[in-house]
Design a protein that fits this description.
Blueprint lengths: L4 H7 L2 H9 L9 H14 L3 E7 L3 E8 L5 E3 L5 H4 L6 E3 L12 H4 L6 E8 L5 E9 L9 H46 L4 H15 L8 E5 L2 E6 L1
Antiparallel strand pairs: 1-2, 1-6, 2-3, 4-5, 5-6, 7-8
Protein name: Signal transduction histidine kinase
Keywords: Kinase, Transferase
Pfam families: GAF (PF01590)
Length: 232
């Protein structure tokens, strides 16, 4: 793996990876909000490529992309991994001359990228998850203009705002589903008319519905060491 050790340490940091996983965004379908942001970034910075890149422990994956054929790459082809440790924009005028990237397979081979500018995507508590980046196949000795750099930072902030909103909506739907299941369980208990077996079966079913990742649920009633009822 060609990623330098300090950067690799950041990439595989368990707290950072847990923060990324909490958004539940990896490998999800394209969404217009993110697609609009890469369109604006590409147009403002006048580059052929713009990406919302999220760096996982062993790969980078693009939530939105323009001008790039793949939806992700191996970590050894990730320039965005280097942006994780930058306090501000990472701008590399010529990727073929920078020691961090000159051996990158996307630089040495197709599509032969040469210019990179990326704004880190940071959680509210400062963990870097990836970058909003623009890429060119020609070097740019002057990098970005001050206006382009300012816009790229602002658009990166909008990416994180969308990710926070997306996570909040997922959590809200989950809570709503739990509330609906509680209502159904209460109705089933009311209709049991005191039948203990029916009531316990309703509780087991309700628990399974409220925790969708659960594989099993059991209610057991004991009298001393004797099992007197079991609902599964």
């Amino acid at each position: 793996m060609s990623v330098p050790a300090p950067t690799l340490d950041t990439v595989v940091d368990p707290n950072r990876l847990a923060a990324l996983a909490a958004y539940g965004i990896l490998d999800t379908a394209p969404e217009k909000g993110f697609d609009d942001i890469v369109l604006l970034a590409r147009n403002i910075c006048e580059t052929p490529v713009a990406l919302v890149s999220l760096v996982a422990g062993d790969r980078q994956w693009f939530k939105a992309r323009l001008g790039f054929p793949e939806c992700g790459t191996d970590l050894n082809a990730s320039v965005c991994a280097h942006a994780l440790i930058e306090p501000d924009l990472l701008v590399i005028p010529d990727l073929s001359r920078d020691p961090r990237t000159r051996a990158n397979p996307l630089v040495t081979g197709g599509p032969c990228i040469r210019f990179y500018a990326g704004a880190p995507l940071r959680t509210p508590d400062g963990k870097a998850l990836g970058s909003l980046c623009v890429i060119d196949v020609a070097p740019r000795p002057s990098g970005l203009t001050p206006s382009q750099a300012e816009s790229l930072r602002a658009l990166a902030g909008q990416v994180m705002a969308l990710m926070e909103l997306r996570r909040a909506l997922v959590e809200q739907r989950h809570l709503l589903g739990q509330s609906e299941e509680l209502i159904r369980t209460q109705a089933a208990l009311s209709g049991a008319k005191g039948d203990l077996g029916v009531m316990l079966d309703a509780l087991v079913t309700g628990a399974m519905e409220a925790v969708p990742h659960a594989e099993d649920a059991v209610i057991a009633m004991w009298d001393g060491e004797e099992l007197i009822y079991r609902a599964t």
